[in-house]
Design goal:
Layout (H helix, E strand, L loop, with lengths): L2 H22 L7 E4 L5 H9 L5 E5 L15 E3 L2 H7 L7 E4 L11 H13 L6 E4 L9 E3 L12 E5 L2
Parallel strand pairs: 1-2, 1-4, 2-3, 4-5
Antiparallel strand pairs: 5-7, 6-7
Helix pairs in contact: 1-2, 3-4
The structure holds S-adenosylmethionine.
Length: about 160
C-alpha cells in the first residue's frame, strides 16, 4: 500500500470513529476535548457534528487553518499535560487524542504520560476516547469493539468505566 492510500484509510477510520462516538455520546452531557488541534481538521468535524457543545482544544504550537481557530476561552495552549490537568474532573464526554507519533500500535512515552490525565478528565461512565495511537491499559478505560471500517489498527476507541 502506498502512503497516499495509507493516509486515506487512516483518515477514513478516524472519521468513522468520531462519527460512531457522536452517536454514543448524544445523551451523555459534558464538554468535548480535542487533544492536538493541529490544522483543525478533526476539530472542524467535531464542532460541525456536535453544535452547542463546548469543545476544548489543546495544542502546544498553535497554527490551525484560520477557519478552525477555537474561541480563546476554549483554548488550552501549551503541553497537553497542562491542558489535561486543567480538565481534571471536568466530566468530558468525548476526547479525541491526535498528537501524531511514529507507531500507532505502540503507546509512546507521551501516551503513557498522558493516559492517566485523560482518564481523570473523562466522565466516569459512558464517555468515549478516540485515539490515533494505541494507549496503555488503564483501570478506568476499556477498549471498545470496533467495526472493520474503524478497526485494523488505524484508530482506537476506549470507553470510560466508573
Ligand atoms: C497530528 S497533528 C493533529 C491533527 C489535527 N487533529 C487535525 O485533524 O488537523 C498533532 C498536533 O499535536 C500537537 N502536539 C504534539 N505533541 C503535543 C503535546 N505534548 N502537547 C500539545 N500538543 C502537542 C502538534 O503540535 C500537532 O499540531
Amino acid at each position: 500500500m502506498n502512503r497516499l492510500e495509507a493516509m486515506i484509510l487512516r483518515m477514513t477510520a478516524q472519521r468513522a470513529a468520531l462519527d460512531w462516538a457522536f452517536t454514543q455520546i448524544q445523551d451523555v452531557p459534558g464538554d468535548l476535548v480535542e487533544i492536538g488541534l493541529g490544522n483543525g481538521r478533526t476539530y472542524d468535524h467535531i464542532r460541525e457534528h456536535m453544535p452547542g457543545r463546548r469543545i476544548w482544544a489543546i495544542e502546544r504550537k498553535l497554527q490551525p487553518h484560520p477557519s478552525c481557530m477555537p474561541p480563546a476561552q476554549d483554548l488550552l495552549e501549551g503541553d497537553a499535560s497542562e491542558g489535561l490537568a486543567r480538565l481534571e474532573g471536568a466530566g468530558i464526554a468525548l476526547a479525541n487524542y491526535d498528537l501524531g507519533g511514529q507507531d500507532p500500535q505502540t503507546p509512546d512515552e507521551r501516551a503513557v504520560r498522558l493516559t492517566p490525565l485523560i482518564a481523570a478528565a473523562l466522565a466516569p461512565a459512558a464517555a468515549v476516547l478516540v485515539s490515533t495511537q494505541r494507549l496503555p491499559e488503564h483501570p478506568k478505560l476499556r477498549q471498545a469493539e470496533t467495526s472493520d471500517e474503524i478497526g485494523q489498527g488505524r484508530v482506537f476507541i476506549y470507553l470510560s468505566a466508573s
